[in-house]
Design brief:
Elements (H helix, E strand, L loop, with lengths): L2 E8 L11 E6 L8 H11 L7 H4 E2 L2 E2 L3 E5 L2 E2 H4 L11 E6 L5
Parallel strand pairs: 1-7
Antiparallel strand pairs: 1-2, 3-4, 5-6, 5-7
Pathway: tRNA modification; 5-methoxycarbonylmethyl-2-thiouridine-tRNA biosynthesis
Organism: Candida oxycetoniae
InterPro entries: Beta-grasp_dom_sf, Mopterin_synth/thiamin_S_b, Urm1
């Protein structure tokens, strides 16, 4: 059974996903089998609409510096970053902290 999560792109980051801020996503993994690394790979290949925008989100196989990552409103660094096991109902929030002006 897929893992159902909500993915949010905030702080202007929604431009990489056709200006859609909130996505309901069914990750094709069983609960307990998908880490954030797998979730990031899925998000990168299924939610980013233009492959040229992938470097805006991913750099050196992780989320680019300047993007705050929250798992259920908690900084992902406190949850184990890429090693966090994604659970059904998780909310994965990506917020750009870099704003033009």
């Amino acid at each position: 059974m897929p893992i159902k999560v909500k993915v949010e792109f905030l702080g202007g980051l929604d431009v990489i996903s056709s200006s859609v801020k909130e996505h309901k996503v069914n990750l094709p993994y069983e609960e307990g089998e998908a880490t954030m690394k797998e979730a990031l790979d899925y998000i990168t290949h299924h939610l980013i609409t233009d492959p040229k925008d992938i470097p805006v989100f991913i750099e050196d196989d992780t989320v680019r510096a300047g993007i705050l990552v929250l798992i259920n409103d908690t900084d992902w660094e406190l949850e184990g970053k890429e090693e966090y096991l994604v659970e059904n109902g998780d909310v994965l929030t990506f917020t750009s902290t870099l704003h033009g002006g």
